[in-house]
Amino acid sequence: MPADGAKDKTGQIPTNLRLLLLVEEVAKAGVPVTPSDLVETLGLPKPTVHRLFHTAESEGFLQRDIDGRSYGPGPRLRRLSVHTLSSQRLRALRLTILNQVVEEIEETCNISVPDRDGMIYLDRIETKWPLRIQLPIGTQVPFHCTASGKMYLSTLNQRYLDRYLGAQELSRRTDKTITDIADLKAELSLTRKRGYATDDEEFMDGMVAIAVPIIDDQNRLVSTLSTHTPCQRLTLEQLKTRLPKLQNGAMRLSDLLLS
Predict the structure, then answer these.
(1) Where are the domains positioned within the chain?
(2) Nearest to 158 by CA among 200, 132, 189
(3) CATH topology of domain 4-74
(4) What is the CATH number assigned to the segment(s) 86-258?
(5) Contact yes or no for 25/38 (Cβ under 8 A)
(6) Is the overall model pTM greater than 0.90, yes or no?
(7) What would the pLDDT profile of 126-146 be if each residue is shown by its tens digit?
(8) Crossing angle (nearest 10°) for helices 158-166 and 181-194
(9) Tell me: the pLDDT tens digits for 175-190?
(10) Dihedral of the CA atoms 250, 252, 257, 258 (nearest 10)?
């Protein structure tokens, strides 16, 4: 149920708060939800909840999922989350941690957030090596063939993951891109068990990468911390030796979300 502080003296949720609380509940759910799922949670009549969902969808704060019945965050809500994460104070602290990780790993590091069709680079610090791979802030990369994308997919509810993969074309980016759904599911299962994801020249020829999750207070992935390097400098196995430092950086970034 919504916090008691959201209700007025009559015990009702004020009209001007209802849409905000609904959007908050959808964001908290972590998986697509139907209007019926939130009727009891919000304590509002079913027709009212349906009307609120319709308003949120028409304004771009919610987006209908591929099943046609459930809803998840829409483009405006996703942009709002990025803008919130990028607020000046938070970003300054985040970049301080990211700089420290880059100094320790000696390779480029990125913080990425999931969007509707791929991972978006929220922050990025370049390595000092002259040989580097240019992928600027704001770049969107695919889920299925990047370390950050596979890290995100591995955290999805199995039913939702099945629906998502069934509706997607796993496009081939290199000779090593995983394009078979069964093979990708096996890779995601391995990622889930070990707690990190890899990209072995699957997104771009000559580039390897690893990614770890940045989690919230409910142990859910909100973003990823990743590092990548040209194969001329490090193999994937060599890059994995930096994993403990990457994981430590992700823990510090997770703590920042809770502060």
Answers:
(1) 4-74, 86-258
(2) 189
(3) Arc Repressor Mutant, subunit A (1.10.10)
(4) 3.30.450.40
(5) yes
(6) no
(7) 888 777 677 778 888 999 999
(8) 150
(9) 999 999 999 999 999 9
(10) 130
